[in-house]
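Human:
Care to share another protein and its fold?

Assistant:
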Amino acid sequence: MTTKANAGTNETAAEARVTVSFSLQDIYRSVYTDGSYESLPDAVLHELAVAMVKHLSEDRDGYRTLRDQINQTRDAIIREMVTPVVADALAAPIQRTNSYGEPVKGEPSILREIIISEAMKVITGPADNYGNRNETRLQVAIRKEVESTWEREIKGAIDTAKAEVRKAVQEKAAGILAKTIQEMAS
């Protein structure tokens, strides 16, 4: 079985042509010798499918884009099918359960409410599990960001102030040294 592609430079992936050829011996063997297929059309379709899979799985120019197009189309179809299912799951009522999977008292909730509730527990929960209940995770995150920003800003201001003081001290020291040398020379 051989395959040949006509993927010229002017052809787009949609126009790519594939020429597939296989021997009648392969088909004859499939139908009559080993009994793999009951009919000639089944054997031909099988040989065609094998040739196409082999061709598309090889990493040649022209086929890579065709394979990518097929994958993108497949992904789009899956996404199109899954999106409404996820939307329905987010909107459908769910009965809350305990850690054993037994329903707990109360009205069913929708998944969106459960996610928001759990997120709020994480954000407003204690920052650690060691009994330190003084700060929530949100407070810790905000404090760390403020500290980080403060340290960056103050470090810049301190570096600028140090440079100014150094320059002033050097100028003052140079003036004192020059005055002292002048007094000693006179």
